[in-house]
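Revision sheet: structure tokens.
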Amino acid sequence: MEAANPPGMKPLAAISLTHVEFDPNDPYGPLMGYASLVPIALLVSYCTLIAFRRDLATCLMFLGQLVNEAVNYAAKKIIKEARPTEYLGKGYGMPSSHSQFVAFFAIYITIYTVKRLNFRHTAWKILISATVFALAGLVAYSRIHLTYHTPKQVAVGLLVGTCFAFIWFLLVENVFVSAIDLDTPVARWFLLRDTRSIPNILVFEYEKTMEELRARKSTRKERKIN
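Predicted:
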């Protein structure tokens, strides 16, 4: 999108990464616009988790998300199907990258939650799965509502993202994890860890933290006595 320029200045360009257009008279327009920004928020969340958690599972899921985007880019270049409107969005429209992105995210999170995470109450698994599916559905629908994609382009994006999530999860569990050695200088320098075998990481970290706090308090008391 080109920006307005003062007289005598060369043309300026605008970064359209977060630029979403909607009908100002549409009461659902703002909601649909913000829904379209969910993938960007998820990318920020990925980077934050990786930076602060250094967990192998998160790193591999993020890698899968990036490969999923590469698959979408290649598919668009091969299929070359136009978007429903020429003035909304850049590039081709088949399949929808937003739909493929959120489908991969929702399916992978659900599989990982069911297979790997243990909670004291099963309701947490249901709540997590329902939340990510609702979010994915909202994002996918927003692309149709805002006329950035046709229903077919969104449906294909959801299908491709779903299939790739299953494939990537199988690759992670059966190939990548066993092939990655965390006992190397590089892995130790980045503090990479694999917590998949711990039944409930939240409870585990809480108990370890409390043990450390009690030990430190006990040490302080002994020093005061001595």
